[in-house]
Amino acid sequence: MQEHNDTGQIYRAPTSTKRVRFSVQGSRFIATLIPAVDEGTARKEIEKVSSEFFDATHHAYAYRIGSGPAMIERASDAREPAGTAGPPMLQVLQGGNISDAVIIGTRYFGGTKLGIGGLTRAYRDCARKALETARLTIREPHATFELELAYEDLGVVTRLVESLEGTALNIYYSDNVKIIVSIPRREEETFKNGFKSACRGHGKLAEL
Length: 208
Description:
The protein has about 210 residues and is of the alpha+beta class. It is built from 5 helices and 11 strands. The protein has a 5-stranded antiparallel beta sheet with strand order 2-3-6-4-5, with helices on both faces. The protein has a 4-stranded antiparallel beta sheet with strand order 9-10-8-11, covered by helices on one side. Strand 9 (about 165-175) and strand 10 (about 175-185) form a beta hairpin. Helix 2 (about 85-95) crosses helix 3 (about 115-135). It is elongated.
C-alpha cells in the first residue's frame, strides 16, 4: 500500500461500470473499470470479474481508494512479468487524478508473446481506454463533526456551515442543540475557529 500526503485533495471518480475490449497481436484484452469506495468493494469486484471470465489467462488489476494520507493504492500483475500489468494501470489512474476506482485488465493469451514493452502498453491501454468511455465526477474529502451548542447560537453556526460549503446532516433538539455536519477538509481549521468564536467558547465539537 502506498500513501499520498495531499491532505484534502480533490479527485475524480467513475460513476458507473465501464467495459472495453480490444486485441493486441492475437491476445484479447477486456478492461473493466468499476467504482469502489472501499477496499472490500474493490476486492469483491475483482473476484466477480475473475469469475465471469474464469477461463482467462490473467486478471491484473489496480485500484485507488480515498485521498490524502489515508489513500489506498494497490496493483497486481497476476502472474504477468513483474511491473508489466498492474503498475501501468495504476499509473494511468494516478496521472488522471482518479480514485475510488478499480481497473481490471483481463487477458486471453493469443499465442504470441508481447514482450515487456508490449505488455506494459497493452495494460496501460486497458486503463486508458476504459477511462475514455467513463463518466467522472469530482469528489472532495469531507470531515464530519458532532456539534453541541445553545439554541441562541444555532443561527450563526448554521450560516457558518453554509458559508464554508458544508452540510448539516442531522439535527437533534434537547436541552441544547446537537448537529452532525459535513465540512470540506480544506475548510476544517476555518470551521473549528469559526465555531469556537460563534459559540463564545461554550460549544462542543467532536470529529466523528
